[in-house]
Write a structure and sequence with these properties.
The complex is a heterodimer. Chain A is an alpha+beta fold. Chain A contains five helices and five strands; from the N terminus they run E-E-H-E-E-E-H-H-H-H. Chain A has helices at 26-33, 89-96, 106-119, 125-131, 143-157, and strands at 5-11, 14-20, 52-55, 58-61, 74-76. Chain A has a five-stranded mixed beta sheet with strand order 2-1-5-3-4, sandwiched between helices. In chain A, helix 2 packs antiparallel against helix 5. Chain B is α+β, with helices and mostly antiparallel strands. Chain B has three domains: 5-51, Uridine Diphospho-n-acetylenolpyruvylglucosamine Reductase, domain 2 (2-Layer Sandwich), CATH 3.30.43.10; 56-171, Uridine Diphospho-n-acetylenolpyruvylglucosamine Reductase, domain 3; 177-288, CO dehydrogenase flavoprotein, C-terminal domain (Enolase-like, domain 1, 2-Layer Sandwich), CATH 3.30.390.50. Chain B has a five-stranded antiparallel beta sheet. Chain B starts with a strand and ends in a 10-residue tail after the last helix. Classes of the chains: A alpha+beta, B alpha+beta. At the A-B interface, strand 4, helix 3 and helix 4 of A face helix 2 and helix 6 of B.
Chain lengths: 158, 298
Protein backbone atom coordinates (compact mmCIF):
# COMPACT_ATOMS: atom_id res chain seq x y z
CA UNK A 1 0.00 0.00 0.00
CA UNK A 2 1.15 3.53 -0.76
CA UNK A 3 2.13 5.44 2.34
CA UNK A 4 -0.33 7.80 3.93
CA UNK A 5 0.69 11.44 3.93
CA UNK A 6 0.08 14.32 6.25
CA UNK A 7 -1.96 16.95 4.41
CA UNK A 8 -2.14 20.49 5.84
CA UNK A 9 -5.14 22.56 4.81
CA UNK A 10 -7.50 25.22 6.00
CA UNK A 11 -11.12 24.03 6.28
CA UNK A 12 -13.79 26.66 6.91
CA UNK A 13 -11.12 29.02 8.21
CA UNK A 14 -9.52 26.58 10.65
CA UNK A 15 -6.12 24.94 10.10
CA UNK A 16 -6.66 21.19 9.70
CA UNK A 17 -4.10 18.42 9.25
CA UNK A 18 -5.17 14.97 8.18
CA UNK A 19 -3.68 11.68 7.04
CA UNK A 20 -4.61 10.49 3.57
CA UNK A 21 -3.54 7.75 1.19
CA UNK A 22 -3.06 8.93 -2.43
CA UNK A 23 -6.01 6.77 -3.50
CA UNK A 24 -8.47 8.64 -1.26
CA UNK A 25 -10.61 11.37 -2.75
CA UNK A 26 -11.19 14.63 -0.93
CA UNK A 27 -14.85 13.58 -0.58
CA UNK A 28 -13.87 10.33 1.17
CA UNK A 29 -11.56 12.11 3.60
CA UNK A 30 -14.05 14.88 4.40
CA UNK A 31 -16.79 12.38 5.20
CA UNK A 32 -14.97 9.33 6.55
CA UNK A 33 -11.88 10.79 8.26
CA UNK A 34 -13.00 14.30 9.26
CA UNK A 35 -16.67 13.55 9.92
CA UNK A 36 -17.75 16.48 7.73
CA UNK A 37 -20.74 14.55 6.42
CA UNK A 38 -22.66 17.59 5.18
CA UNK A 39 -20.88 17.09 1.85
CA UNK A 40 -22.81 14.34 0.06
CA UNK A 41 -21.78 11.52 -2.25
CA UNK A 42 -24.06 11.20 -5.27
CA UNK A 43 -22.61 9.77 -8.48
CA UNK A 44 -18.90 9.86 -7.55
CA UNK A 45 -18.00 10.60 -11.16
CA UNK A 46 -18.37 14.36 -11.51
CA UNK A 47 -21.87 14.52 -12.95
CA UNK A 48 -24.18 15.35 -10.05
CA UNK A 49 -22.42 18.03 -7.98
CA UNK A 50 -23.72 16.71 -4.63
CA UNK A 51 -20.12 16.72 -3.33
CA UNK A 52 -19.38 20.34 -4.36
CA UNK A 53 -16.99 22.19 -2.06
CA UNK A 54 -15.08 25.43 -2.63
CA UNK A 55 -11.37 24.75 -3.10
CA UNK A 56 -9.08 27.80 -3.28
CA UNK A 57 -12.06 29.96 -4.18
CA UNK A 58 -13.48 27.72 -6.92
CA UNK A 59 -16.36 25.24 -6.77
CA UNK A 60 -15.12 21.69 -7.43
CA UNK A 61 -16.54 18.17 -7.29
CA UNK A 62 -14.68 16.75 -4.26
CA UNK A 63 -15.11 13.21 -5.70
CA UNK A 64 -12.73 14.26 -8.51
CA UNK A 65 -10.01 15.73 -6.28
CA UNK A 66 -7.42 13.57 -4.53
CA UNK A 67 -7.21 14.45 -0.85
CA UNK A 68 -3.42 14.81 -1.18
CA UNK A 69 -3.99 17.57 -3.75
CA UNK A 70 -5.51 19.70 -0.96
CA UNK A 71 -2.03 20.22 0.58
CA UNK A 72 -1.65 23.94 1.32
CA UNK A 73 -5.17 24.65 0.06
CA UNK A 74 -8.20 26.42 1.45
CA UNK A 75 -11.47 24.50 1.61
CA UNK A 76 -14.99 25.66 2.36
CA UNK A 77 -17.68 23.07 3.02
CA UNK A 78 -21.38 23.35 3.85
CA UNK A 79 -20.48 23.17 7.55
CA UNK A 80 -18.76 26.56 7.28
CA UNK A 81 -21.58 28.41 5.55
CA UNK A 82 -23.91 29.35 8.42
CA UNK A 83 -22.84 32.09 10.85
CA UNK A 84 -22.80 31.04 14.52
CA UNK A 85 -26.21 32.63 15.11
CA UNK A 86 -28.64 31.45 12.45
CA UNK A 87 -28.48 30.74 8.73
CA UNK A 88 -26.66 32.15 5.73
CA UNK A 89 -28.85 34.19 3.38
CA UNK A 90 -28.60 31.37 0.79
CA UNK A 91 -29.76 28.75 3.30
CA UNK A 92 -32.63 31.04 4.31
CA UNK A 93 -33.63 31.45 0.68
CA UNK A 94 -33.59 27.68 0.03
CA UNK A 95 -35.90 27.18 3.03
CA UNK A 96 -38.09 30.14 2.13
CA UNK A 97 -38.60 28.96 -1.45
CA UNK A 98 -38.97 25.27 -0.46
CA UNK A 99 -36.07 24.59 -2.83
CA UNK A 100 -35.45 21.10 -1.48
CA UNK A 101 -37.31 17.90 -0.91
CA UNK A 102 -35.04 14.94 -0.07
CA UNK A 103 -32.12 17.33 0.54
CA UNK A 104 -29.24 15.18 -0.73
CA UNK A 105 -28.34 17.65 -3.47
CA UNK A 106 -28.84 20.74 -1.28
CA UNK A 107 -25.35 21.17 0.26
CA UNK A 108 -23.87 21.00 -3.24
CA UNK A 109 -26.39 23.51 -4.61
CA UNK A 110 -25.69 25.89 -1.72
CA UNK A 111 -21.92 25.71 -2.27
CA UNK A 112 -22.34 26.28 -6.03
CA UNK A 113 -24.72 29.17 -5.35
CA UNK A 114 -22.23 30.71 -2.92
CA UNK A 115 -19.49 30.52 -5.57
CA UNK A 116 -21.83 32.03 -8.19
CA UNK A 117 -22.94 34.97 -6.05
CA UNK A 118 -19.37 35.74 -5.03
CA UNK A 119 -18.51 36.08 -8.72
CA UNK A 120 -21.78 37.61 -9.97
CA UNK A 121 -23.99 39.25 -7.34
CA UNK A 122 -27.04 39.64 -9.59
CA UNK A 123 -27.14 36.78 -12.12
CA UNK A 124 -29.91 36.45 -14.70
CA UNK A 125 -32.10 33.34 -14.70
CA UNK A 126 -30.09 32.01 -17.68
CA UNK A 127 -26.82 32.59 -15.82
CA UNK A 128 -28.16 30.83 -12.72
CA UNK A 129 -29.31 27.80 -14.71
CA UNK A 130 -26.05 27.62 -16.66
CA UNK A 131 -23.85 28.01 -13.58
CA UNK A 132 -25.80 25.34 -11.67
CA UNK A 133 -25.85 22.87 -14.59
CA UNK A 134 -23.28 20.73 -12.77
CA UNK A 135 -25.68 20.17 -9.86
CA UNK A 136 -28.50 17.68 -10.34
CA UNK A 137 -31.76 17.57 -8.36
CA UNK A 138 -34.25 14.79 -8.93
CA UNK A 139 -37.00 16.20 -6.69
CA UNK A 140 -37.72 19.86 -7.31
CA UNK A 141 -37.66 20.34 -11.08
CA UNK A 142 -35.20 23.23 -10.48
CA UNK A 143 -37.67 26.15 -10.63
CA UNK A 144 -37.77 26.48 -6.85
CA UNK A 145 -33.98 26.33 -6.70
CA UNK A 146 -33.70 29.10 -9.29
CA UNK A 147 -36.16 31.21 -7.27
CA UNK A 148 -34.12 30.57 -4.11
CA UNK A 149 -30.94 31.73 -5.83
CA UNK A 150 -32.76 34.85 -7.05
CA UNK A 151 -34.01 35.53 -3.50
CA UNK A 152 -30.50 34.98 -2.11
CA UNK A 153 -29.05 37.34 -4.72
CA UNK A 154 -31.47 40.05 -3.58
CA UNK A 155 -30.45 39.35 0.01
CA UNK A 156 -26.78 39.54 -0.89
CA UNK A 157 -27.08 42.78 -2.84
CA UNK A 158 -29.47 44.60 -0.48
CA UNK B 1 -10.21 3.23 -5.75
CA UNK B 2 -7.15 1.05 -6.39
CA UNK B 3 -3.90 1.90 -4.65
CA UNK B 4 -1.27 4.10 -6.31
CA UNK B 5 1.65 6.34 -5.39
CA UNK B 6 1.45 10.13 -5.82
CA UNK B 7 4.18 12.61 -6.66
CA UNK B 8 3.86 16.35 -7.28
CA UNK B 9 7.14 17.47 -8.91
CA UNK B 10 7.97 21.18 -9.07
CA UNK B 11 9.93 21.01 -12.34
CA UNK B 12 9.40 19.65 -15.81
CA UNK B 13 12.65 17.66 -15.66
CA UNK B 14 11.49 15.93 -12.49
CA UNK B 15 8.11 15.13 -14.07
CA UNK B 16 9.75 13.63 -17.17
CA UNK B 17 12.10 11.58 -14.94
CA UNK B 18 9.15 10.24 -12.93
CA UNK B 19 7.04 9.47 -16.01
CA UNK B 20 9.88 7.81 -17.91
CA UNK B 21 11.05 5.85 -14.84
CA UNK B 22 8.01 3.62 -15.08
CA UNK B 23 6.25 4.71 -18.27
CA UNK B 24 3.73 1.87 -18.53
CA UNK B 25 2.43 2.42 -15.00
CA UNK B 26 2.70 6.22 -14.55
CA UNK B 27 0.04 8.77 -15.52
CA UNK B 28 0.18 12.57 -15.42
CA UNK B 29 -2.59 14.29 -13.42
CA UNK B 30 -3.76 17.78 -14.38
CA UNK B 31 -7.42 18.53 -13.51
CA UNK B 32 -8.16 14.85 -12.92
CA UNK B 33 -11.73 15.08 -14.18
CA UNK B 34 -11.10 12.21 -16.62
CA UNK B 35 -8.14 10.51 -14.92
CA UNK B 36 -9.62 10.06 -11.44
CA UNK B 37 -12.85 8.69 -12.89
CA UNK B 38 -10.90 6.33 -15.17
CA UNK B 39 -8.88 5.01 -12.23
CA UNK B 40 -12.04 4.51 -10.18
CA UNK B 41 -13.68 2.52 -12.97
CA UNK B 42 -10.40 0.65 -13.66
CA UNK B 43 -10.27 1.83 -17.24
CA UNK B 44 -6.76 2.96 -16.26
CA UNK B 45 -4.62 1.22 -13.64
CA UNK B 46 -1.58 3.41 -12.90
CA UNK B 47 0.82 2.59 -10.06
CA UNK B 48 2.05 6.20 -9.99
CA UNK B 49 0.09 9.42 -10.49
CA UNK B 50 2.29 12.43 -11.28
CA UNK B 51 0.51 15.69 -10.41
CA UNK B 52 1.82 18.23 -12.94
CA UNK B 53 -0.05 21.29 -11.60
CA UNK B 54 2.89 22.62 -9.58
CA UNK B 55 5.16 22.87 -12.63
CA UNK B 56 5.35 26.53 -13.76
CA UNK B 57 5.75 25.60 -17.47
CA UNK B 58 2.34 23.90 -17.46
CA UNK B 59 0.58 26.89 -15.86
CA UNK B 60 1.61 29.53 -18.40
CA UNK B 61 -1.18 31.64 -19.91
CA UNK B 62 0.59 34.31 -21.94
CA UNK B 63 -1.11 36.48 -24.53
CA UNK B 64 1.07 38.68 -26.69
CA UNK B 65 1.72 40.02 -30.19
CA UNK B 66 3.25 36.69 -31.23
CA UNK B 67 0.23 34.68 -30.18
CA UNK B 68 -0.88 32.70 -27.17
CA UNK B 69 0.96 30.22 -24.95
CA UNK B 70 -1.38 27.94 -23.02
CA UNK B 71 0.17 25.67 -20.38
CA UNK B 72 -1.20 22.14 -20.55
CA UNK B 73 -2.57 22.22 -16.97
CA UNK B 74 -4.33 25.62 -17.13
CA UNK B 75 -7.95 25.02 -16.13
CA UNK B 76 -10.85 26.09 -18.36
CA UNK B 77 -12.07 28.92 -16.13
CA UNK B 78 -8.75 30.79 -16.41
CA UNK B 79 -9.00 30.67 -20.21
CA UNK B 80 -12.48 32.14 -20.65
CA UNK B 81 -11.85 34.37 -17.62
CA UNK B 82 -9.04 36.19 -19.45
CA UNK B 83 -10.74 38.94 -21.51
CA UNK B 84 -7.90 39.23 -24.06
CA UNK B 85 -7.73 35.50 -24.66
CA UNK B 86 -11.52 35.18 -24.83
CA UNK B 87 -11.73 38.00 -27.40
CA UNK B 88 -8.85 36.96 -29.65
CA UNK B 89 -9.24 33.15 -29.41
CA UNK B 90 -12.99 33.05 -28.98
CA UNK B 91 -13.42 29.49 -30.33
CA UNK B 92 -11.16 28.28 -27.50
CA UNK B 93 -13.17 30.25 -24.92
CA UNK B 94 -16.43 28.88 -26.41
CA UNK B 95 -15.10 25.34 -25.89
CA UNK B 96 -13.92 25.96 -22.34
CA UNK B 97 -17.28 27.44 -21.30
CA UNK B 98 -19.17 24.25 -22.26
CA UNK B 99 -16.79 21.49 -21.10
CA UNK B 100 -18.70 19.96 -18.16
CA UNK B 101 -20.28 22.28 -15.61
CA UNK B 102 -18.74 25.00 -13.47
CA UNK B 103 -17.11 22.51 -11.08
CA UNK B 104 -15.43 20.64 -13.95
CA UNK B 105 -14.25 23.93 -15.51
CA UNK B 106 -12.53 24.81 -12.21
CA UNK B 107 -10.21 21.85 -12.74
CA UNK B 108 -10.30 20.46 -16.29
CA UNK B 109 -7.55 21.61 -18.66
CA UNK B 110 -7.35 21.88 -22.43
CA UNK B 111 -4.12 19.86 -22.30
CA UNK B 112 -5.96 17.09 -20.47
CA UNK B 113 -8.87 17.20 -22.91
CA UNK B 114 -6.36 16.81 -25.75
CA UNK B 115 -4.43 13.95 -24.08
CA UNK B 116 -7.64 12.09 -23.23
CA UNK B 117 -8.01 12.08 -27.04
CA UNK B 118 -11.75 11.46 -27.15
CA UNK B 119 -13.28 11.91 -30.62
CA UNK B 120 -15.91 14.22 -29.07
CA UNK B 121 -13.41 16.44 -27.17
CA UNK B 122 -14.87 19.96 -27.24
CA UNK B 123 -11.60 21.89 -27.20
CA UNK B 124 -9.62 20.00 -29.85
CA UNK B 125 -11.53 21.33 -32.92
CA UNK B 126 -10.86 24.85 -31.64
CA UNK B 127 -7.13 24.11 -31.31
CA UNK B 128 -7.08 22.78 -34.87
CA UNK B 129 -9.13 25.69 -36.28
CA UNK B 130 -6.86 28.23 -34.55
CA UNK B 131 -3.74 26.53 -35.98
CA UNK B 132 -2.33 25.49 -32.59
CA UNK B 133 0.82 23.41 -32.11
CA UNK B 134 1.35 21.01 -29.23
CA UNK B 135 4.69 21.17 -27.38
CA UNK B 136 5.74 17.78 -25.98
CA UNK B 137 8.58 17.01 -23.55
CA UNK B 138 10.03 13.59 -22.90
CA UNK B 139 13.20 11.65 -22.23
CA UNK B 140 14.34 12.36 -25.80
CA UNK B 141 13.89 16.15 -25.47
CA UNK B 142 11.23 18.45 -26.88
CA UNK B 143 9.18 18.19 -30.03
CA UNK B 144 6.12 19.84 -31.53
CA UNK B 145 3.19 18.49 -33.49
CA UNK B 146 0.27 20.27 -35.16
CA UNK B 147 -2.96 19.93 -33.16
CA UNK B 148 -4.62 18.06 -36.06
CA UNK B 149 -1.86 15.41 -35.97
CA UNK B 150 -1.97 14.77 -32.22
CA UNK B 151 -4.84 12.26 -31.91
CA UNK B 152 -4.46 8.94 -33.72
CA UNK B 153 -7.60 7.06 -32.64
CA UNK B 154 -10.21 6.97 -29.87
CA UNK B 155 -8.17 7.51 -26.68
CA UNK B 156 -4.95 7.24 -28.71
CA UNK B 157 -2.37 9.90 -29.52
CA UNK B 158 1.23 10.48 -30.60
CA UNK B 159 2.66 10.66 -27.05
CA UNK B 160 5.42 8.12 -26.61
CA UNK B 161 6.59 6.43 -23.48
CA UNK B 162 7.50 8.95 -20.77
CA UNK B 163 6.31 12.00 -22.74
CA UNK B 164 3.87 14.69 -21.62
CA UNK B 165 2.30 17.79 -23.17
CA UNK B 166 3.88 20.98 -21.80
CA UNK B 167 1.96 23.68 -23.59
CA UNK B 168 -0.14 24.51 -26.60
CA UNK B 169 1.03 27.46 -28.70
CA UNK B 170 -1.22 29.49 -30.99
CA UNK B 171 -0.16 31.85 -33.77
CA UNK B 172 -1.22 35.51 -33.54
CA UNK B 173 -4.74 36.15 -34.82
CA UNK B 174 -5.12 38.16 -38.04
CA UNK B 175 -6.24 41.80 -37.99
CA UNK B 176 -9.70 40.87 -39.31
CA UNK B 177 -10.30 37.43 -37.86
CA UNK B 178 -12.97 35.59 -35.94
CA UNK B 179 -13.52 32.10 -34.58
CA UNK B 180 -16.24 30.01 -32.99
CA UNK B 181 -16.95 26.54 -31.60
CA UNK B 182 -20.43 25.12 -31.23
CA UNK B 183 -21.78 21.63 -30.67
CA UNK B 184 -25.13 19.92 -31.02
CA UNK B 185 -26.44 18.23 -27.86
CA UNK B 186 -30.05 17.37 -26.97
CA UNK B 187 -29.75 19.26 -23.66
CA UNK B 188 -28.70 22.85 -22.95
CA UNK B 189 -25.45 21.94 -21.18
CA UNK B 190 -23.48 19.12 -19.48
CA UNK B 191 -23.49 16.66 -22.37
CA UNK B 192 -21.20 15.00 -24.90
CA UNK B 193 -21.18 16.46 -28.41
CA UNK B 194 -23.26 14.62 -31.01
CA UNK B 195 -21.38 16.82 -33.49
CA UNK B 196 -19.07 19.75 -32.73
CA UNK B 197 -17.60 22.28 -35.17
CA UNK B 198 -14.78 24.79 -34.71
CA UNK B 199 -13.91 27.40 -37.31
CA UNK B 200 -11.44 30.27 -37.57
CA UNK B 201 -11.64 32.72 -40.46
CA UNK B 202 -9.48 35.55 -41.72
CA UNK B 203 -11.23 38.24 -43.80
CA UNK B 204 -9.74 40.96 -45.99
CA UNK B 205 -9.71 44.59 -44.79
CA UNK B 206 -13.19 45.24 -46.15
CA UNK B 207 -14.58 42.26 -44.27
CA UNK B 208 -16.27 41.10 -47.49
CA UNK B 209 -13.96 38.24 -48.59
CA UNK B 210 -12.33 35.27 -46.95
CA UNK B 211 -8.52 35.31 -46.98
CA UNK B 212 -8.28 31.89 -45.33
CA UNK B 213 -10.22 29.60 -43.03
CA UNK B 214 -9.66 26.46 -40.95
CA UNK B 215 -12.47 24.14 -39.93
CA UNK B 216 -12.44 21.05 -37.67
CA UNK B 217 -15.16 18.69 -36.46
CA UNK B 218 -15.73 16.63 -33.32
CA UNK B 219 -17.61 13.34 -32.83
CA UNK B 220 -17.83 12.42 -36.52
CA UNK B 221 -14.63 10.36 -36.92
CA UNK B 222 -12.27 8.23 -34.77
CA UNK B 223 -10.33 11.43 -33.99
CA UNK B 224 -11.12 15.16 -34.04
CA UNK B 225 -11.21 15.86 -37.77
CA UNK B 226 -9.43 18.68 -39.64
CA UNK B 227 -11.39 19.35 -42.85
CA UNK B 228 -8.91 21.14 -45.07
CA UNK B 229 -11.36 21.11 -48.00
CA UNK B 230 -13.90 23.16 -46.02
CA UNK B 231 -11.35 25.90 -45.42
CA UNK B 232 -10.21 25.71 -49.05
CA UNK B 233 -13.84 26.23 -50.20
CA UNK B 234 -13.78 29.62 -48.44
CA UNK B 235 -10.24 30.88 -49.11
CA UNK B 236 -10.20 33.74 -51.61
CA UNK B 237 -14.00 33.70 -52.00
CA UNK B 238 -16.39 36.52 -51.24
CA UNK B 239 -18.39 36.02 -48.04
CA UNK B 240 -21.52 34.58 -49.65
CA UNK B 241 -24.18 31.95 -49.09
CA UNK B 242 -22.63 29.94 -51.96
CA UNK B 243 -19.12 29.85 -50.48
CA UNK B 244 -20.43 28.94 -47.03
CA UNK B 245 -22.66 26.22 -48.53
CA UNK B 246 -19.63 24.76 -50.33
CA UNK B 247 -17.69 24.63 -47.05
CA UNK B 248 -20.65 23.00 -45.30
CA UNK B 249 -20.86 20.40 -48.10
CA UNK B 250 -17.14 19.66 -47.68
CA UNK B 251 -17.62 19.15 -43.93
CA UNK B 252 -20.62 16.85 -44.51
CA UNK B 253 -18.60 14.84 -47.04
CA UNK B 254 -15.58 14.52 -44.74
CA UNK B 255 -17.58 13.28 -41.75
CA UNK B 256 -17.39 9.51 -41.23
CA UNK B 257 -19.45 9.09 -38.07
CA UNK B 258 -20.75 5.98 -36.35
CA UNK B 259 -24.30 5.14 -35.30
CA UNK B 260 -24.72 5.20 -31.53
CA UNK B 261 -27.26 6.26 -28.92
CA UNK B 262 -26.39 9.91 -29.49
CA UNK B 263 -27.10 9.96 -33.20
CA UNK B 264 -27.21 8.04 -36.46
CA UNK B 265 -24.70 8.34 -39.30
CA UNK B 266 -27.28 10.16 -41.43
CA UNK B 267 -28.15 12.62 -38.64
CA UNK B 268 -24.53 13.33 -37.75
CA UNK B 269 -23.56 13.97 -41.38
CA UNK B 270 -26.52 16.32 -41.80
CA UNK B 271 -25.70 18.20 -38.59
CA UNK B 272 -22.04 18.47 -39.64
CA UNK B 273 -23.19 20.60 -42.57
CA UNK B 274 -25.73 22.64 -40.60
CA UNK B 275 -23.32 23.45 -37.78
CA UNK B 276 -20.44 24.24 -40.15
CA UNK B 277 -22.68 26.80 -41.87
CA UNK B 278 -23.70 28.40 -38.55
CA UNK B 279 -20.21 28.38 -37.08
CA UNK B 280 -18.70 30.05 -40.15
CA UNK B 281 -21.39 32.77 -40.06
CA UNK B 282 -20.72 33.40 -36.35
CA UNK B 283 -16.94 33.54 -36.95
CA UNK B 284 -17.50 36.04 -39.79
CA UNK B 285 -19.75 38.20 -37.62
CA UNK B 286 -17.13 38.20 -34.87
CA UNK B 287 -14.39 39.11 -37.36
CA UNK B 288 -16.52 42.09 -38.45
CA UNK B 289 -17.25 43.09 -34.85
CA UNK B 290 -20.99 42.59 -35.38
CA UNK B 291 -23.38 41.74 -32.57
CA UNK B 292 -24.69 38.19 -32.86
CA UNK B 293 -27.44 36.22 -31.22
CA UNK B 294 -25.17 33.43 -29.94
CA UNK B 295 -25.55 32.58 -26.26
CA UNK B 296 -23.59 29.89 -24.43
CA UNK B 297 -25.61 26.80 -23.77
CA UNK B 298 -27.65 27.45 -26.91
Amino acid sequence: MAKQRIVSTSINGNPVEFLAAPRQTLLEVLRDNLDLIGTKEGCSNGNCGACTVIFNGRPVDSCLVLAVEAEGGELETIEGVAPTDGLHVIQDAFLGQAALQCGICTPGFIMSTKALLEENASPSEDEIRFHLAGNLCRCTGYDKIVRAVQQAAEGVTN
Amino acid sequence: MRDFEYEAPMSLDDAVALLSGNPAAAKPLAGGTDLIDHIRTRRLEPDLVVDVKKIPDLNVLEFGDDGLRLGAAVPCYRIYGDPQVAAAYSALADSCRIIGGTQIQSRASVGGNLCNSGPAADSTPSLIALGARVVIAGPGGRREVAAEDFCTGPGQNVLESGELVVEIVFPARPAVGGSHYRRFIPRNEMDIAVVGVGAAVELDESGQSFVSARIALAAVAPTPLYVEAAGAALSGQPVSDEAIAAAADAAREAATPIDDMRGTVEFRKHISGVLTDRVIREAVARARGEETGYRIGQ
